[in-house]
Amino acid sequence: MATFNPKLPDDRVNISLEHPLRDLVLLLGGVLGVVLATVLVVGLLLDVVIPKVPVTVEQALFSSLKEVFDFEKRVKESDPDPALQRRRASQRETLTRLLGELSGHWPEGGYEFSIELVDFGRALGNRGGPNAAAFPGGLILVNPALLDEVESENELAMVLGHELGHFRNRDHLRGLGRGVALQLILGSLGATGGAAAIGEVAGFAGVLVEGRFSRAQETDADRFGLELLARRYGHVGGSTHFFERILGREEATGSGVGAFFRSHPLSRQRISELRKNAAERGWEFSGELVPVRWSQEETGLEGAPSPPSPQ
Amino acid sequence: MEALAQLTVKILIPFLLLIVAYGVGSYREKKHFRSLRLRERTTGGFPMVTFSSAPESWDVHSAALVTGSVLISLDYFKRFVAGLRGIVGGRVAGYESLLDRARREALLRMKERAIEQGFDAIINVRFDTSRLANAGEDGKGTAGVEMLVYGTALRLGHGADGNL
């Protein structure tokens, strides 16, 4: 005769007794650690390989990038105002001339530069946006809003010289390489079915690492820009004016945590770096500043640039 | 500040969700385990076996199909940790406790239903699990787990006094 013996089960047989939070911390730390390490290693490798790419190869590879930002085509399509078109054309002329003068003082560069005006503010849908950006192949994009603000040619030359500094250090290529590498890493994480949040966290970790590298690059570019200015004008007057102007704006929006994630150093730091650098190299800040003068025949205006047209 | 907004959306909010999910999830889990133990103790004397046919000594008067099922959902915390496990592999402790609860709950529901209807024992007890897909993630995510238990409940001739 079967006897049924009820026994309460040991209810811990089928579960793990590990504390879930400890599990989470170990896993998260491990995964993030590996991702960060990979990003760093790949970044270091890129830093070794990329500067070896010859300028001619780079220009050949990215020569079609200019067409994306084709000035003539864009202006005809989006800005029907002929006065504005003329103004932009003359600005482009002046910029090209200035760029030619500056790169003339950097003969070993080997780049054939080209400039396009792109209204970043309108394109990105937010107010502001970068003032100028360096792209592979020797393309420099300049925000027209910048041109309406500058008071001297020297200021403008500082901004352009800064971009030339990026080309010298091949920063634009580095950024490209790192971006691709990061996307590949994140993509492979996603493919294995990891939580979407992991991808976000890893991406953010990548941005943190990126932020640091970028700030060192920016400081270097500033230094080279200053040098070009000294070579072209014999003095470095006007180099800090641009940063001093946006310094007030920056202070208003605050720094702190946001500053940590900025890719550019704060203006205050940039100004002091520039002064320090100039002092080291014995460059003077006093000197005649060349006022910006957009070609008078084109705009029909005398002297100072006209106020920005309503957008 | 755009960077700050990005920081909040991408890190702070998921982190807060994790904390809340962990807190609420582990509280509910403990509560459920307590309820399970209590009900198991109360209904412990009711025979449930996996024999596919009744022992010959039993005097079976009637039989009927009984089932118990339960649907338990993952919380954000479990899902997150399981996702990490998906990269490195290993025991997914959160799922283990989830499934354990689901099994025991389903069994208890079947048992309680049988007791309600006056049955004396259940034979041929079988389990079935299915994963509920998450419509949002293209069917790849797990919205929850359904545990189904079924068996044949028997009404026996002699009263259920432990001796069959």
Please tag this protein with its features.
heterodimer, A: 311 residues, mainly alpha, three-stranded mixed beta sheet, 4% strand, elongated, disordered C terminus, B: 164 residues, alpha+beta, three-stranded antiparallel beta sheet, 3 strands, 27% strand
Question: Care to describe what's here?
Answer:
The complex is a heterodimer of chains A (311) and B (164). By secondary structure, chain A is mainly alpha-helical. Chain A has helices at 20-49, 55-61, 65-68, 71-78, 82-104, 120-124, 144-149, 153-168, 171-191, 196-233, 241-253, 257-261, 267-281, 296-299; strands at 114-117, 132-135, 139-142. In chain A, strands 1-3-2 form a 3-stranded mixed sheet. In chain A, a hairpin with a 3-residue loop joins strand 2 and strand 3 (139-142). Chain A is elongated, with a radius of gyration of 26 Å. Residues 295-311 of chain A have low confidence and may be disordered. The mean pLDDT of chain B is 86. By secondary structure, chain B is an alpha+beta fold. In chain B, helix 1 (2-42) packs parallel to helix 3. Chain B is elongated, with a radius of gyration of 21 Å. Chain B has helices at residues 2-42, 76-88, 93-116, and strands at 60-73, 121-134, 141-156. The chains are: A mainly alpha (311), B alpha+beta (164). The interface between A and B is large, with 40 and 47 residues.
